[in-house]
Amino acid sequence: MKIAAVEPAALPAAGRRARAHVGIEVWMPLVLLTGALGYPFFLLITSAFNVGDPQALPAVEYGFTNFVDLTSHLDWIYNTLLIATGGTILGITIGIGLAWTIHRTTVPGRNWFELLVAIPYPLGPLVGALAWSQLGAPRDGLINRAFMWATGGNSPLFDIYTPLGIIFVEAIFEAPVAVLIIGAAMQRMDPSLEESSSIFGGGKWRTAIKITLPLMLPAILSAALFMFTSIIGSFAIPTILGTSARFYVATNAIYVLFQGYPPNYPLAAALGLVLIVITGVAVWLVQRVLRGRSYVVVTGRAYRPRQVDMRGWTWPLFALASLYVVISLVLPLGALLLASVQTSSDLAFDPSTWTLANYKYVIVDFPTTRQAIINSLILGVGTGTLGVACATLIAIAVHRSKSSGRKLLEQVTMLPQAFPRLIFAFGFLWMILTLPIQLYGTLLAVLLAYIVVFLPLAYRGMSGVVVQIDSALEEAARVGGASWSRVLRTVTVPLLRSGILATWALLFMVSVREISASLFLSDAHTPVLGPAIFSFWDSGGLPRVSALAMVQALIILIALYAVRRWAGREIKV
Amino acid sequence: MVGSTAQEKTAPAAGPSAAGATQYIEVRGLTAAYDDKVVVKDISFSVASGEHLSLLGPSGCGKSTTLRCIAGLETPIAGEIVIDGVPVFSSRKGINVPTEKRKLSMVFQSYAIWPHMTVFENVAYALRVQRVREAEIKARVAEVLRMVGMEDYMMRPATNLSGGQQQRVALARSYAARPKAMLLDEPLSNLDARLRVRMREEIKELQHRFNLSTIYVTHDQEEAMAISDRIIIMREGNIEQAGKPLDIYDTPRTRFVADFIGAANILVGSVEKAGASGAPVMKIGEAAIECAPGSQPQKPASDGRHMIAVRTVYPELRREPFAGGANVWKATVRRRVLLGDIVSYLVEWPGGELRIQSFPRDLFDEGEAVHLHIAPAHVIPIAAD
Predict the structure, then answer these.
(1) In 3D, which of B31, B36, B35 has the Cα closest to residue B81?
(2) Counting beta carbons within 10 angstroms of the beta carbon of residue A407, is it exposed (0 to 12), middle (13 to 18) or buried (19 or more)?
(3) Fewest C-beta atoms under 10 Å: which of A223, A314, B234, B274?
(4) Which residues of chain A have a CB within 8 Å of the CB of B108?
């Protein structure tokens, strides 16, 4: 009786408070993320305008000198835009072609292609760049040697150490993302939208141009944006393929400025800021074009897309898809494997001279690489676990909580995607140096940076799963008397299981292959695979660096295999 | 690949020219399969010029596949489809005219309104394909949008339209194309009940105005009854029964049809003898019931017993006795349920139990002793499944 008397009075007050209330599940991640993103960004800006002592943090004198200095290095920015634009156009073209072939045609082996074309992305740009420098070097490259042997001449087929070569390698290793994003949109499109075009007299071409393409445009543009940002911030490919031709892009210019003596931090920061502005403009442009066009994601329902019999085009498409698998997977892994069993940098094709000594060296004998492998595994597990935990909590807060500020939390979570990772790591490094606790030179610093930069990836994965789960399932448990934490433990997490597993594996793989974010943050005491392979490339000799790259590739391939085995076929990448 | 123009020239003049005046769409021996599962099994039917035909059946009966074969969205494995005298599909002659050359219109279950276009552009699409002059396009689109009451939405983007509005745009788009025939695939199933009834009336109205041959696929018997000139009931890829709505209602041929259309008492018993009129008499429980004149006992169930169907609306109840004649019994009202516009009784009679629906007038009480009469014309022998 007493309870009944209290209840009605308490209810309206609670309702009022709920509206203006910002729950802890929203403000806490918001504050932490804003700090982890905002402070490095703030330091980057102050340094970019620092005209006094280049080592001072934060700066004491401000001016525009650094940006004026940049004007004498406009080629860096020009080159960055060149490879980012070229790589995006080529990569999107490949992505559309592959997604179409896999999801919309009757080309044989579609399921295999779907699996195989996803692999180059987790294998990563470092493996790609190393392998293609062995395949496409003008004189020693395997393909060019084969070509010269076959033609009897001594002019190579192509030179990978050119801007075009860099664009090519960037494109083939970024294309899987486009296949994934565009393919998902194709599966979400109601096939009757195309069927009705046929009904009203639209032929194949009219339907493709007037209906299919506009409906795919949002997916194509967001895939393009993802690639563009990714290539702008990419380090391994332009560095490994461009350095010998003194072709500099912004990222390796920053690296040189950073490593030079004396290091020119302010100029590096100014360059970084320019990159952020460029990606910011790209994001803004895409959002402008896409405004009011979010229709592709209106239903979460998956359709079986209408499959087109390509008739005479079937085998050419099959050949093109196979060609992609060959140049992105078979040849790179083959080249690395061949180089990794050599006794010297001169490739020998006689199996009796091959050796596993390089593997023994990098895994067992050499302490730095041994430690790098161990550290990368620790980072992979750590980023996977903590990243999924953070992303799940944020996704639940965004989609399930009624607190205000949810949308803001989502936007802040996705923000690192617009930052080139190398630039973020650069700012993050300064943040760590200015913090009172000693973080620099620890694995924890790298781990924290990884979690922040990969949070958009993790959030995207988890939020897709959280949205699909009917909130009534959770509400039923609440009605049944379970507390919030019990609902999470007994209903939400088990339902999210396969999504969690897939996202965990994705984070594990991208952490193991990462170089841009760890280049500045790992040092001699905390070696990590990506930077270790890179410095080995500088100094260690071809067979050993190939062996180390193969180890990285194997870890990723095993992770891919495991997740497909355990999580079933619904998992991609 | 064979173009449609080529077939128009080579199409044999035989057959369609004579029947073509009335039989506008002809489907002969149509067989269709998904992967290895045959979903439409050798069915034949035709639609007369201006006729409204419904394909009715539960989900998975092959009705949508049949429609999609006529539209050219699925390729049958055998059979022949002729539209307006022109064969558009023939497995024997190797003809398969692509969808876009069949000059049909279709309303999809999901409406398939293109979200990246305005309402105007959606409706104008077919006219642009037909290279109609721009001024005429404007006039025709405006006219047809006015007919469906959507003229105020002409320049709006097609996103954020309600279900009913999308439905109207889909109808407008279909009529604007001036097709040879209209195909509708469960067009009302995504609307709420009240709107469904209203749109049903509007479709019927438009149908009368344009007088187009129409094939309408639905699983809703009420919809099919309300809207069609003729109904084909499909079941597991076969045609179970075809006819005018009232004929199917009054004389279902099988238990499936009796159950699927309207409400019926399915009574099970044995054939006793021919009655005075020559119609069969069935023994149902303790009762002997005379069947419709001229009817025959149908295929019995596996236990050898025969079935009859009695629509719940036809048996009569009275307090005073009927004046003799066939099929008159004493009965008791067991249960009475008032459903608003109608009242439903469960009545105990010598044949067991009978459900009867009538109007809420002179209500009988539960337990009341009554007299029951079932006119033989409404006692229909049906085939067991």
Answers:
(1) B31
(2) exposed
(3) B274
(4) 192, 195-196
The answer to whether the Cβ–Cβ distance between A195 and B112 falls below 8 Å is: yes
A200–B71 CB contact, under 8 Å: no
For residue B276, give Cα distances in angstroms to A1, A243, B279, B325: 76, 108, 7, 11
pLDDT, average across residues B193-222: 90
Is residue B355 within 8 A of residue B312, CB to CB? The reply is: yes
Q: Measured between CB atoms, which of A193, A206, A217 is closest to B112?
A: A193
**Rounded to 5°, angle at Cα B231 from B229 and B235:** 170
Distance CA A304, CA A186 (A): 9
- The kind and range of the H/E element at B42 are strand B37-48
What pLDDT is stored for residue B275 in this prediction?
A: 62
Q: Is the peptide bond before A262 cis (omega within 30 degrees of 0)?
A: yes
The span from the CA of B71 to the CA of A87, in Å, is 43
Three-state DSSP string of A398-442: HHHCCCCCHHHHHHHHHHHHHCCHHHHHHHHHHHHHHCCCCCCCC
Whole-angstrom Cα distance, residue A534 to residue A184? 34
Give the predicted TM-score (pTM) of the model.
Answer: 0.81
Question: Dihedral angle at the C-alpha atoms of A445, A447, A452, A456, nearest 10 degrees?
Answer: 160
Report the alpha-carbon distance of residue B229 to residue B215 in Å, rounded.
10
pLDDT at A68: 85
Query: What phi, psi does A438 have (nearest 5°)?
Result: -80, 100
Pairing mode of beta strands B280-284, B287-290 = antiparallel
Give yes or no for A372 touching B (CB within 8 A).
no
Side-by-side strand order, sheet with B86-90: B37-48, B23-34, B78-83, B86-90, B95-96
Residues 267-306 of A with CB under 8 A from B: 292-293, 295, 298
Kind and range of the H or E run holding A356: none
Q: Could you tell me if A208 lies within 8 Å of chain B, comparing CB atoms?
A: no
| pLDDT > 90? residue B141 | yes
Q: What is the CA radius of gyration of chain B?
A: 25
The region of weakest confidence among A53-62, A139-148, A429-438, B62-71 is A53-62
CA-angle at A249, arms to A246 and A253, nearest 5°: 80
Look at B126 and A200 and tell me if their CB atoms are within 8 Å.
Answer: yes
Q: Are B105 and B177 in contact (CB under 8 A)?
A: yes
Query: Are B145 and B132 a contacting pair, CB within 8 Å?
Result: no
Q: Tell me the CB-side half-sphere exposure of residue A173, using CA atoms within 13 A.
A: 26
Amino acid letter, A385: T
Say whether residue A308 is in contact with chain B using an 8 A CB cutoff.
no
B105, B109, B116 member nearest A215 (Cβ): B116
3-state secondary structure of A354: coil
CB contact under 8 A, A201 and B110: no
Backbone angles phi, psi at A425, to 5 degrees: -60, -35
- Pick the closest to residue B280 from B302, B300, B250, B259 (CA basis): B300
The answer, yes or no, to whether residue B380 has pLDDT greater than 50, is yes
Nearest partner of A496 among A537, A468, A522, A515, judged by Cα: A468
Structure tokens that stand for B122 in this block: 């959606």
ipTM of the complex: 0.80
The token duo for A223 is 């895939």
Distance from CA of B109 to the nearest CA of A (A): 9
Nearest by CB to A200, from B72, B157, B177: name it.
B177
